[in-house]
Specification:
The protein is of the alpha+beta class and 173 residues long. It folds into 2 domains: 43 residues; 115 residues, Rieske Iron-sulfur Protein. 27% of the residues lie in helices and 35% in strands. It is built from 2 helices and 10 strands. The strands form 3 sheets. A 4-stranded antiparallel beta sheet has the order 5-6-7-8, with no helix packed on it. A 3-stranded antiparallel beta sheet has the order 1-10-9. A 3-stranded antiparallel beta sheet has the order 2-3-4, with no helix packed on it. Strand 5 and strand 6 form a beta hairpin. The N and C termini lie far apart (76 Å).
Amino acid sequence: MAKSSEESPARRTFMMVVIGLISTVIGIALAVPILGEVLSPLFKKRDIVWTKLSAVSDLEKISPLTPKFIPVYFKVKEGWSINTLPRQVIVVKDITGDLHFFSNQCTHLGCPLHWIPARQKFMCPCHGGMFNVLGEVVGGPPPRPLYEWIHKIDKGSVFIQNKFLDNPKERGI
Ligand code: FES
């Protein structure tokens, strides 16, 4: 009888430890899928979004080798909200009549470019990067030509995707 009453506190402690462990395991089992559902939007890749740029007929009227800056607005899902992101497309018609859709972000560190007609160059105000009208680097630190937006023509209009054509690092927006 005396032996039984001595073992009782140890058994009680053991049972509490077991119950605590079982509760912890159940808690983790419930928390993992809930946390995964709540946090998953943060780790998803940005959705593909298309936005209308302009009617093809209007872009065809652009003078050759004369850049035209056109704003676009992408509605993209970020986390739990949908945001409108403004961007610029530089449309250039080359001498063969082909249209190019450049990003206005400098390929060095992303500063917005300005077209300087007198010099026939895109100039970067940050570190002096320079690009010619076809987006090729002609001076300064930029490591590569201008990015070109992915685009498509549908029912007479040009649509721009929120990604760049040559996209080694998932660049775009
Ligand atoms: S960001 Fe354009 S040259 Fe550095």
